[in-house]
Amino acid sequence: MSSTNENINIGKRLLYLRESKGLNQEEISDSVGISLRAYQNYERGERTISKELIHALLSTYGVDPVWLLTGDGNMYRNEKPAPRTQAIVEMIESLDDSQKQKIYAVIEDAKQFTEMKKQIKQLNQLLGTMKTA
User: Residue ranges of the HTH cro/C1-type domain (predicted)?
Assistant: First the structure.
């Protein structure tokens, strides 16, 4: 069973997919065979995504289910990474284990820093709304 937070994250990825295709909610809901209302609920994270919708997104748009559910990997199944990304991956793969661990630590620190920046922004917005209330 999905949590509310997971549903919201999946909804964000649905929004990203739809906007990247240049579609409105009615167009994408029609293309995958669900009602507009149901699609809107998925995109807002108010409804747990169904196996049928995951399959429809895969067969209609080639959306990778792993990306849709977790955000990991590429949005489209069998999508090749950009040449620059592939070059970086190859460079990292050529490093010894201790060098790889240092690279992974830097990447993890960057992810945590980005998350902290988001949280600070949310706190500032909350404080801003509290001052006006």
Answer: 14-68
Helix (H) or strand (E) holding 64: none
The terminus-to-terminus CA distance of the chain in angstroms comes to 37
CA 32 to chain centre: 19
The helix, strand and coil proportions of the chain, stated in percent and rounded to the nearest 5, come to 75, 0, 25
Q: Give the mean model confidence (pLDDT) for residues 61-65.
A: 93
Quote the pTM value: 0.58
Domain residues for the domain of 113 are: 83-132
Q: Which residues lie across from 104 on neighbouring strands?
A: none
122 belongs to a structural domain: yes
Rg of the chain on CA atoms, in Å: 19
* Within a domain: 76: no
**Are the C-beta atoms of 14 and 42 separated by less than 8 Å?**
yes
